[in-house]
Amino acid sequence: MPLGSRHARIGVLTLACAFALTASSRLAAQEIAPLAVFDSAWSAMARSYFDTALVNGRWRATYDSLRGGLGAAPTLDQERAALRVLLQVPGQSHFALIPAGALPERRERQGGDATPGTAGIVPRLASDTLVVWRVEPGSAAAAAGIRAGDVLTVVAGIPVDSVRQRLRRAFPGSGREGDALLLNVIKSQLDGPVGDTATVTTVGLDGRLHTHMLVRKPAPGRLSRYLNLPPMMLQVSLDSTTVPVRGREVPIPIIAFSGWFPVIVQDLDRYTFGVRGAPGVIVDLRGNTGGSVALIGGFAGHFSDSAWSLGSMRGRGADLRLTANPRRATPTGERVGVITAPVAILIDGMTASASEFFAAGMQGLGRARVFGETSAGQALPASMYQLPSGDVLMYPIADHVDATGRRVEGTGVVPDTRTPLVRKELAEGRDAALEAARAWLAESLSRP
């Protein structure tokens, strides 16, 4: 169904759809019946939630009790309170009620064309502060003198702290989910059609406030049009670093990509086949919010000599096993071996969904060591459903465990070596996660 419809799935596809749904399909103000809203929410969850025993047992009994307690003419606030109680029954994350108006509207185009563009700012949370993590070279942000480590206080007229507090109230059980949605909201305001303007207010390390009018330039990468998701630019790159091994600097390739979508598969395969024989590999999944789980097995197969299990997903009436598919031949038919060198995976709070499946699977198998910050914990495929009131209901539609039976849903993939973002280090141009991965690889490769 098109994204503009009232029902869209996120999680396994991409966490970034969350803002697109809530901002692009708001309903006009109208008279609503709160009981109809409550019934609509229950109906959506009951017909697609994966645990039918819970749906038909304790959860339905709770629904019946709450509905009876609402009386004949409850207020919208009473309906919301009852629905939040109902959402607590499964005891899982990905359940939330986001009130209408809690998220800012997407700004309309001011001109330009439909080409996806960017202001050049990549935001992240450093502790409780929204900061500039990276500035894209050649972007409007770079030309304006915005630097990594600057604090973002207002974006497109949106006070960052105010939106964050509203989202945290919508996700009372876990600040992680609200923070992940905040980052997607801010990113959606920084990105937009080429030629449009994004206005941002920043605070530098000197404590001074600066307001910038940034005209968006074309976003780098390949344009993806996948299923009913909005068009998005995806990046895949092959870079390198070096590590000291027995008195010499050894090159280590870094493969980074921003989403698991078919449009980048050829590039990703070319790069990964091309690093056969490297003494180690770094896979950078920071900011990779997910995509199609069907691509995980193929990529994992570059690093696996057998059909290892990466975990499984259980949905309504169907199971999906995630299995590595050993890649022993190139697309041209040339026989090659898989990569047996040590693998380091970089993750952060924006690493979500399919990326978490991959990182958790590789970590659980002992095939990779993970560095950075705990991932988003958005491992379950979920739905976002707009209720007749304009509120948005989010709920999971499947369950996931890795090969060891471990769940990353709600808790995230915990790095073997944790390197939290520090604003001062960002301003100094340091990359703590990459430094930690390099140090581990240097130690591993220096052993006899």
Please describe what this structure looks like.
- Helix 1 crosses helix 7.
- This protein is α+β, with helices and mostly antiparallel strands and 448 residues long.
- The strands form seven sheets. A six-stranded mixed β-sheet has the order 14-15-16-19-20-24, sandwiched between helices.
- Helix 8 links the parallel strand 15 and strand 16.
- The termini are far apart.
- It is globular, with a radius of gyration of 23 Å.
- The chain is built from twelve helices and 24 strands.
- The protein folds into three domains: 92 residues, no CATH class; 102 residues, Pdz3 Domain, CATH 2.30.42; 194 residues, 2-enoyl-CoA Hydratase, Chain A, domain 1 (Alpha-Beta Complex).
- The N terminus is likely disordered.
- 29% of the residues lie in helices and 26% in strands.
Count of the domains: 3
Q: Estimate the strand proportion.
A: 25-35%
Low-pLDDT sequence parts: 1-30, 107-113
How many strand units?
A: 24
CATH topology of the largest domain: 2-enoyl-CoA Hydratase, Chain A, domain 1
Helicity range? 25-40%
Backbone shape: globular
Query: What CATH architecture label of the largest domain applies?
Result: Alpha-Beta Complex
Number of helices in the DSSP assignment: 12
CATH class of the largest domain: Alpha Beta
Radius of gyration: 23 Å
